[in-house]
Amino acid sequence: MSSYYNSWEPEGPSVNTEIPGPKAKAAIKELDEVFDTRSLNMLTDYQKSCGNYIADPDGNVLLDVYAQIASIPVGYNNPTLIKAARGDEMINGLINRPALGNFPPKDWADVLKSGILKVAPKGLNQVFTAMAGSDANETAYKAAFMWRRQHERGGSHIEFTEHEMESAMKNQTPGASELSIMSFKTSFHGRLFGSLSTTRSKPIHKLDIPAFDWPQATFPLLKYPLEEHAEENAAAEKAALDEVEHLILNYHAPPCAVVVEPIQSEGGDNHASPEFFRGLRAITRKHNVLLIVDEVQTGVGATGKFWAHEHWGLTDPPDMVTFSKKAQTAGYYFGNPELRPNKPYRQFNTWMGDPARALLFKAIISEVERLDLVNKTAQVGEYLYGKLEGLAKRYPGQFENLRGKGMGTFIAFDNPKRDEFLKTAKKFGVNIGGSGTSAVRLRPMLILEERHADILLEALEGIAKVLA
Questions:
Q1: Could you confirm whether 325 is annotated as catalytic?
Q2: Which CDD domains would you find in this protein's record (predicted)?
Q3: CB 293 within 8 Å of CB 260
Q4: What confidence tens digit (pLDDT) does each residue in 117-176 have?
Q5: Is residue 367 within 8 Å of 81, Cβ to Cβ?
């Protein structure tokens, strides 16, 4: 792998000006006249970005271990993806973008089977394609509501009543159900209306937006190092599962599904044990409630498995798994044919995804398999985590609550000066992200190697010295 990537990415970072520099500042000022730039991280020169490195208009080149919020799988300007983008299939998908529900292309089944469905989680053999992570979760929620109401009516063959149809047009019951989706405190599932009602990470996402009265359970907040707090953590996970079951049985708007992230990412990189998730699957199955696993951020290899929930050792798979980000497309996988609505147009929109993005995911899958990137991510993650443990010992307080052991490069730690830490990182040639209130999260691409990890570690040590 090294010789292949060495041929098209820089040897290392180079910082020539402050970030943003004069050219970037001028461009940002111009952009701000027509586009809100207040959330801007870094104005980027994508033509000069390459592999693991992101460039800006002033010629600064940073090692990017944030990767567009975990969304770049195999590097900037990857030659394999460029080749796929120039193909006739891609051109056809782009300029003749089909309304997939009405006018799917003749080879759509082959595109799905040779791409998105090739890596489908075990037990899930169908897919609904979507545009983005929020969209994937919202359509999964819709599928859950329709599935539950079909069961309550007695089966998909039962027709809707006139009262149901009339009341639905008034946003009233029984046509509009009084069901809910349960999520967890500090979770993040998107910013659209339905998904936002399951997002609990930060008030800024939700303020002023009407929300559904849906339940939230406590996500177990583990203490680190895990081996020193095993008894406390087990008790926290049991309490969380007890709360889930209580809400399923008693919440006034009955949950028809529970949605959970394998690792709560935006909410602070919060982990739970495989035993917790196996217990969650058992409770949802016991009470005939669907389990939706939100793999938007954790999916496609970042945790050293293609899907993070593979770490759980489930014998009974989730009912739906949502995906986006590193897949460069979006949607949800499912297996139960009852999760298809009983009528056409109930789960529908004009685009229902994008063939061009599905083709890009197919190329990404090919690159991941060709270079064995999932296993390599597991190996590099183990190396990186071990070195970070050493840094944490040498610089007390700078790498608190180090977490992500055995989870590939999906690693995080807390820093009391988190925002200053992220800003200082750019001066050392590294682009890093944060989450929650104090977490520094690493979200590198799958092509990160030990040599990149060494560059990162040297920068992290430099930052720790500055902030100590």
A1: yes
A2: OAT_like
A3: yes
A4: 999 999 999 999 999 999 999 999 999 999 999 999 999 899 999 999 999 999 999 999
A5: yes
Catalytic residue flag (residue 219): no
Question: What residue spans define the domains of the chain?
Answer: 88-157+183-369
- Which residues does residue 290 pair with via DSSP β-bridges, in sequence order? 257
| Catalytic site residue from 64, 269, 294, 414 | 294
E strand or H helix that includes residue 130: strand 126-130
Residue 61: Cβ within 10 Å count: 22
Catalytic member of 161, 173, 350, 437? 350
Distance CA(243)–CA(173), nearest Å, equals 28
Q: At 339, which amino acid appears?
A: L
Q: Is 417 a catalytic residue?
A: no
Q: Report the candidate in 62, 68, 51 with the shortest Cα–Cα distance to residue 17.
A: 62
Token pair of 461 as six digits = 């040590």
Q: Select from 227, 201, 200, 202 the least CA-distant residue to 215.
A: 200
CA separation (Å) from 8 to 4, 49, 233, 366, 465? 8, 10, 45, 19, 32
Q: What CATH class does 88-157+183-369 carry? A: alpha beta
Q: Which residue among the candidates 188, 219, 277, 410 is catalytic per the annotation?
A: 188
Which residue in the list 305, 325, 326, 376 is annotated as catalytic?
A: 325
DSSP state of 347: S
